[in-house]
Each structure stands twice: as structure tokens, then as C-alpha cells.
Amino acid sequence: MISEIQRFFEEERNEEIGVIAAENAFEFFKNSLGPHFYNEAIKDARQLIEQKMVFMEEELFSLDKKL
Predict the structure, then answer these.
(1) Which of left, alpha, beta for 14 (phi over 0: left; psi -120 to 50: alpha)?
(2) Are 43 and 26 spatial neighbours (Cβ–Cβ below 8 Å)?
(3) What is the CA radius of gyration of the chain?
(4) Which of 12, 26, 51, 65 is the most exposed place for a label (fewest CB within 10 A)?
């Protein structure tokens, strides 16, 4: 990841940054953006599980025997 950050700065900004600067940038973005991406992933997983639960409930009701 560090080399990718260095490459980004070189290609997009024509700036050469060292390993420590790239590590600092990585830590900043990880700490700033990481929780947002984590929460979005949890939200997506929750929606998927809810959809699966609805499907499973429908499947279980279809197995009911008529009295």
C-alpha cells in the first residue's frame, strides 16, 4: 500500500514522497476513512442477511402442512 501511495503522489501530483510520508498518509486515511468503509460494509452485510432471512421465512412457510 505504501508503494501505491508513493506512486499516486508521483503520477498525480508530480511529487516524490518517502516511505515515512507515505506511511503517515496511509495512517491518516485509514483512521479517517476506515470507520466509514467498515460501517458501510456492516450495513451491506445487514441488508443481505435481512434479505436471506425473508427468503428463509417464505421457504419455511411453504413447508407448512394444511390442516
Answers:
(1) left
(2) no
(3) 23
(4) 65
